Amino acid sequence: MADLEGLKVSKEYYIDQPVKTLDQFFVKGAHNVDYGMKKHLANIFNPKSGNTVMFAFDHGYFMGSTAGLERLDIVLPKIAPEVDCLMGTRGAIRTSVDPSWRKSTALRVTSGSSMLNDDLSHEILAVDIEEAIRLNADCLAVQTFIGAEGQLSSLDNLSRAVNLGNRYGIPTMGVVAVGKDMERTDRFFKLATRIVAELGANLVKSYYCDNFEEVVAACPVPIVVAGGKKLPEKEALELAYKAIQGGAKGLDMGRNIFQSMHPTEMAKSIAKIVHEKYTDKEAFEYYTDLINR
Predict the structure, then answer these.
(1) Would you call 205 a catalytic residue per the annotation?
(2) Which UniProt keywords are given for this protein, alphabetically ordered (predicted)?
């Protein structure tokens, strides 16, 4: 047994101070989930700002070798230090993400389509929960197609991922897809984000739109805004600023970072908006200063 000689008897019970209780958890809609799920969400969202910068590099699962992502082993070490969460496939995470970076990961768990298909909405839940646990994923990213031909199967994928995630304490992120024939209006995003949240997603990745504040208000979990197509850097920073001002809890930028001429500087500038309340003009000045050094 332990040596008791010289053992100090504790006397500091602070009986004059009430026992502290934890405040409501800082991630929207997550105050009633289990500790393990909160821990994963706290890995994704910065506790000080309440926001996140995600870097999406999962494009290869349906596009193959994508411009700007030809060499993950070269791109990722440049970007990872500047973001909070890395969103990728299990193959890319295993081969190209260094565990010592200590970054949260959003694991893409749906697949089954390619850029050769006319309709990308028929995906399957391709990664089982044991694999997600082995990879220590902080959330399961599930593509959802509201209003598309494959809506039923994609919502089934989401529901099954939520059930599995709840069983093992891993959050699910519903990724709202927008195909070429689908609306990109506030009416559509109010519908899509609410459906995804109602089915149990703990966070939603969606797009910025008119009346975005109303979309955010109607969604009971955090919305992270996707960067979408490649924009000029100034316009991408304007999008980031509008999204955060509109109530988004983060940005998930892919092409607007890895296809930038200065991807590291772009990631740094987006983080200034997301975490330090920079305006788009201030962030663009910061970006310009970085590239001119």
Answers:
(1) yes
(2) Lyase
Cα separation, 44 vs 105, in Å, equals 8
Residues in the chain: 293
Which residue has 């028929």 as its token pair? Answer: 122
Rounded to whole angstroms, how far apart are CA atoms 250 and 44? Answer: 10
HSE of 269, CA atoms in CB hemisphere, 13 A = 30
Report whether pLDDT(65) > 90: no
| Residue 44 belongs to a domain | yes
How much is the pLDDT for 121?
A: 78
- From the candidates 28, 38, 205, 268, give the one annotated as an active-site residue: 205
Q: List, in sequence order, every residue forming a beta bridge with 56; answer none if it has no partner.
A: 87
Q: Kindly state whether residue 43 falls inside one of the protein's structural domains.
A: yes
CATH of the domain at 114: 3.20.20.70
Strand, coil or helix: 238: helix
> Is beta strand 139-144 parallel, antiparallel or unpaired with respect to 172-176?
parallel
Structure tokens given for 7 = 């053992």
How far is 223 from 206, CA to CA, in rounded Å?
Answer: 7
Residue span of the structural domain in which 147 resides: 33-230+249-261
Check residue 244 and report its DSSP letter.
Answer: H
Alpha-carbon distances of 222 from 154, 190, 203, rounded to whole Å: 20, 13, 5
pLDDT band (50, 70, 90) for residue 237: very high
Is 67 inside any structural domain? yes
What is the mean predicted confidence (pLDDT) over 213-231?
Answer: 95
What are the pLDDT digits (tens) for 10-34? 677 788 888 888 888 999 999 999 9
Number of domains present in the structure of the chain: 1
> How many whole angstroms separate alpha carbon 204 and alpha carbon 211?
17
pLDDT digits (tens, 9 = 90+) for 175-216: 998 766 567 899 999 999 999 999 999 999 999 999 999 999
Q: Is residue 267 part of a domain?
A: no
